[in-house]
Design a protein that fits this description.
By secondary structure, this protein is an all-alpha fold. The protein has 13 helices and no strands.
C-alpha cells in the first residue's frame, strides 16, 4: 500500500458520486432548455422598445402580469425557495442529514445562476422600483455565489468537514511527488511549468483580491500545462486525437502520471493559498449573507405588493 492511500480519498481527489454528477447535469440542462426556449419564443418581443410592446401579439402573455409572465414569476419564486434551502439546512436537523454540504451547494449555485435570468424574463427586462432593486441585488448575490463556490472548492476538508492542517497537505504533496517521480514518464524539467506556483510567503504578501486573481490564473493555466505534458509524450496522430493534449489519450500509464501531476499541482496551489483562501472565504460570508437576506426582504415585498394590487 502506498503512503498516499493512507489519506482519505476526499482529500486527494474529492470525486463526485456518479448519481450526484448526473443530477447536477440534468438540472443544468433543464435550466438551459427553459432559458433558451423563453429567449427564442420572446426574443422579438423583448427586443422591442417599451412603447412598441403593447402592440405586440405576445404582450398579453409576456408582460409581467401576463399568463407567461406570471408563470415565470412563480418559477423564479420557486428557485428563490430552492436557493434559501441551502442556508436553512444548517438550522433544520432533518435537512442537514440529507446529502453533503458540497452537493447541496452545487444545486444552490445552479438555482442561483438560473433565477436572475428567469426573473429578468418575468420583468420583461424592466427593472424599476422595489423589483429592480431586488433583481440587481439578486444578480450581485449570484455573482458572489459563483466566486464563493470557487473559493470554497480550494479549501480542503476532511470527512467530517473540519479543515485539515497544513502539515497533512504537505505530507500528501510529498507522497504525490514521490509517486510522480517513480512513474518516470515526465522529467522534472517537463513538470516545472505546471508546478511553478507562488510560495506561501509570496502569497502572504498579496492582498486578498490579488491572491484570488493569482490563484485563478494558476488554476486556469494548469489545463494548458497538462495538455502540453500529454502532447509531449504522444506522436502526431495521438496529439490530433487528444485535441492537442486536452482529451485523454487512453494510455493507462500516461493518464496515471497525468492524474498524479494534476493532484500534485492542485495540492501545491492549495498549500500556497490555504491561509489566504480561508481569510477570503470568511470575508465572503460577511458580505454574502446580509446581501442575500436583503434580497429576500425586497423579493417578499415585491411579491406582497403585486398580490395586494391584484397583479396575481
Amino acid at each position: 500500500m502506498s503512503e498516499l492511500s493512507l489519506f482519505p480519498a476526499q482529500l486527494v481527489a474529492r470525486p463526485k458520486s456518479s448519481l450526484h454528477r448526473a443530477l447536477v447535469t440534468v438540472a443544468i440542462m433543464a435550466a438551459s432548455i427553459v432559458v433558451l426556449a423563453i429567449l427564442v419564443y420572446g426574443f422579438d418581443y423583448y427586443w422591442m422598445s417599451l412603447a412598441e410592446r403593447p402592440f405586440s401579439l405576445k404582450h398579453s402573455s409576456l408582460k409581467p402580469s401576463g399568463q407567461v409572465g406570471i408563470g415565470l414569476g412563480m418559477l423564479g419564486f420557486s428557485l428563490f425557495l430552492i436557493i434559501f434551502l441551502y442556508p436553512l439546512r444548517k438550522k433544520i436537523p432533518w435537512l442537514a442529514k440529507r446529502g453533503s454540504t458540497k452537493n447541496w451547494l452545487d444545486f444552490h449555485i445552479v438555482a442561483g445562476c438560473t433565477a436572475p435570468l428567469i426573473i429578468a424574463f418575468h420583468a420583461s427586462f424592466k427593472f424599476q422600483g422595489i423589483a429592480g432593486m431586488a433583481f440587481w441585488m439578486m444578480v450581485a448575490v449570484a455573482l458572489s455565489g459563483i466566486g464563493g463556490r470557487y473559493i470554497y472548492a480550494q479549501i480542503p476538508r476532511t470527512l467530517n468537514s473540519a479543515e485539515i492542517s497544513l502539515k497533512v497537505l504537505e505530507d500528501m504533496e510529498s507522497s504525490l511527488s514521490q509517486e510522480l517521480m517513480d512513474e518516470r514518464i515526465f522529467s522534472p524539467t517537463d513538470l516545472k511549468p505546471l508546478l511553478n506556483i507562488p510560495t506561501a510567503d509570496q502569497v502572504r504578501e498579496m492582498s486578498a483580491f490579488a491572491a484570488i486573481v493569482s490563484m485563478s490564473k494558476v488554476d486556469f493555466s494548469r489545463r494548458f500545462h497538462i495538455a502540453r505534458l500529454r502532447s509531449k509524450v504522444l506522436q502526431g496522430g495521438g496529439r490530433i486525437r487528444t485535441l492537442g493534449g486536452f482529451r485523454s489519450s487512453g494510455n493507462a500509464s500516461i493518464e496515471s502520471a497525468i492524474e498524479t501531476a494534476k493532484r500534485r499541482a492542485s495540492l501545491s496551489m492549495r498549500i500556497a493559498y490555504l491561509a489566504k483562501t480561508q481569510q477570503v472565504f470568511h470575508l465572503w460570508h460577511v458580505v454574502h449573507r446580509p446581501v442575500s437576506y436583503a434580497f429576500a426582504v425586497l423579493a417578499i415585498l415585491h411579491i406582497g405588493v403585486a398580490i395586494s394590487l391584484g397583479f396575481v
